[in-house]
Amino acid sequence: MAAVVLAAVTVAATAAGTIGAAGAALAATPGDGSPGRQARAWLPEPSGPYPIGTTALHLTDAGREDPWHPGQRRELMISLWYPTSHPAAAEDRAAYMEPAAGKHFDGPDGVGLLNYGTQPGRTDWSAIRTHARKDAPALTGGPRPVVLYSPGLGDPRTWGTALVEDLASRGYVVVTVDHTYEASEVAFPGGDLATSVLPGMLAQPGLDIGAVLRKAMDTRVADTRFVLDQLAALGGRPGLPAGVAGALDLGRIGMVGQSAGGFTALQTMHDDPRIAAGVNMDGQMHFPGPDGHTGVFLPSVAEDGLNRPFLLMGSGSGDSGSYRNQPGWNAVWQHSTGWHADVTLAGSRHGSYTDAQPLLPQLARQGVLGAERLRNDVGDIRPGRAELATRSYVASFFDRWLRGQDDHLLDGPSARFPEMAYER
Question: Whole-model pTM?
Fold first, then answer.
């Protein structure tokens, strides 16, 4: 990708905190592995008692023009992850990414390089396997609470699979959403691949970066609300795996996201009362001015606050940490009447709340990215501890507010997680 595009993406990431990279989308650090050798990596095992099924759906919003591609209807890909009685054997675990999507993610225009500094051509992302059985029937036993997952700006919906699988294994139905033409790539049935328009836009001289980010957020919220509408109509959708439509309890809906996805979770929660509780994992909640450097413009969720429960999860990145350090977080904190808490994971970085945390250390050991870049992405916290803390706090929050089951982890500082600072 041209250097000017990369520089523009870096400006946007640094100013708005919504690109999925830790700190910014920096150039790749050369690794020391042999060219052409494919690296391998594994996702951590889910911790819950249930085997997992997953199915992907192609949605078309006939009533909305695509904001990034005028003249065509808005199309999305989502995946549902849910408990099943049919565990996946090694050979039939669903792929982490579709082959065309994985190839683009790993290419010179993909966010593997731009957001995380992985060497192009070194990793077969589609060869990574999830723990879910593709198109498995849903486990019987009544409807289950639903959690939506939104990824960071530029990241695909797969980039939070470790957390998503863990929630599904604990008994949730989790719905992951790709934001087409903003995500690095979205693979559609039939072989079409929709790639991001952002690199080309950000290369334009004089571009109003703040306006682009506001457009992205408006689009994300509209996407999410459309997905909620479609979930209510799943019973009439042909070809859905058995029991999936009946597995969703749409009276108990939460949302979690990382970076721009965390912003999306709370902004959608503000705009749509169907979302009862939300988690923002390291997503700043303000917009910059046109130059991407100066100005602080608050969204409506920050100005109005929330009257339902939410959790802020900060990292050790320089522009993160306590809600007191971030204008958007501080505003939503001060204006909210619903239950809220703030936790910060010591030693972490922006990517620690994504699949960067379990996957990148494995790839770094195989020379796909360098040690300095790895620290910039995920910090120096041990990957297993970061993963355990993320899973535990997110599950504790949704158990409390969607299931009425309180393990009291969110009552205050915890001896189980001394690396997690707590504010209430």
Answer: 0.91
